[in-house]
Amino acid sequence: MLPAVVLALAVGLGACAPPGSRGPASGLVAVVGLVTAAPTCPVERAPPAPACSAQPVPNAVISIRDADGTEVMSVVSGADGAFVADLAPGTYRLVPQPVAGLLGTPSPVSVEVRAGESRVVVDVGYDTGIR
């Protein structure tokens, strides 16, 4: 279910962009992400209980670095765990920063932004430490 939520989020966020602010004409591509934390229940079942779904992580800081490792920007997830960054074509690493109350930090996410794309969708998953 989570990929469907991310896809719906990506479509919704793209619709909110001012005309001409991204896409082929501007040369910028929307990198749309969702930051979540899981597991949320001590015992996971198959099929998973809806109450135990991954939960959004608000205020997570994601550092976006270019191929040389230089930070080009950072973004902060909203209350719904969503973020968006308009990036020029290239290779990037999204580097999640620690979030209080969550176990460690997720591994960096590599993103290839290609000219002509309208958006790239990524997921960032934190570990709650619940076992």
Question: What best-fitting shape do the alpha-carbon axes yield?
Answer: elongated
Count of spatially separate domains: 1
| Name of the level-1 CATH class | Mainly Beta
- Average of pLDDT: 85
Name the poorly predicted regions.
Answer: 1-20
Decide which structural class fits the backbone: mainly beta
How many separate helices? 1
Tell me the total number of β-strands: 8
Fourth-tier CATH superfamily name: Immunoglobulins
Cα distance, first to last residue? 22 Å
The portion of residues assigned to helices is 10-25%
CATH topology: Immunoglobulin-like
Largest sheet: 4 strands, mixed
CATH architecture grouping? Sandwich
Overall description:
The protein has 131 residues and is mainly β. Helix content is 11%, strand content 38%. The protein is built from 1 helix and 8 strands. Strands 1, 2, 5 and 8 form a 4-stranded mixed sheet that branches. A 4-stranded antiparallel sheet has the order 4-3-6-7, with no helix packed on it.
Condensed summary:
With 131 residues, this protein is mainly β. It is built from one helix and eight strands.
